[in-house]
Amino acid sequence: VQLQASGGGLVQAGGSLRLSCTASGGIASITSMAWYRQPPGKQRELVARISSGGRGYYPDSLKGRFTISRENAKNTFLQMNSLRDDDTAVYYCNAIVYGTQFYWGQGTLVTVSS
User: Fold this and answer.
1) Distance between CA atoms of 20 and 4, rounded to whole angstroms?
2) Phi/psi of residue 25, nearest 5 degrees
3) Whose CA is closest to 94, among 38, 52, 32, 28?
4) How many Å apart are CA 50 and CA 32, to the nearest integer?
5) Cβ neighbours of residue 42 under 8 Å, at least 6 residues apart?
6) Beta-carbon neighbour count of residue 7 at 10 Å?
7) Averaged pLDDT of the chain
8) Which 3-state string (H, E, C) describes 23-89?
């Protein structure tokens, strides 16, 4: 499975951004898709996950501002609203294949300026 993330960039605090992830190769084997992020100097953390059935999961700290969605089995999106300085990070697309194998995209940088 190959993952291509895009949509990052510079945005002002309070603004919105939509990230996209396109999967190719072995798409039918993907169990769920997710977005993670890694802020500068910090560990990578889960932002949102969506099952093959379309159910989303979010950490409590991000509920209400971020929305994950899928358009067919190939494209996954992350809509980010009311962005804050601490949302600045490299955002990674993630796929779980057959429930156990993790695949990662190359990351896309989101910078929120105040």
Assistant:
1) 8
2) 75, 110
3) 32
4) 6
5) 89
6) 16
7) 94
8) EECCHHHEEEEEEEEECCCCCCEEEEEEECCCCEECCHHHCCCEEEEEECCCEEEEEECCCCHHHCE
Confidence of residue 13 (pLDDT cuts 50, 70, 90): very high
- Position 87 scores a pLDDT of 97
pLDDT, residue 53, reads: 87
Distances (CA, A) of 66 to 21, 25, 35, 60, 82: 15, 27, 10, 11, 9
Place of tokens 């910078």: 111
Share of the chain above pLDDT 70, in %: 100
Judged against a pLDDT cut of 90, whether residue 108 lies above it is answered with: yes
Q: What CA–CA distances, in Å, run from 30 to 57, 70, 88? A: 16, 12, 28
pLDDT of residue 84 exceeding 90, the answer is yes
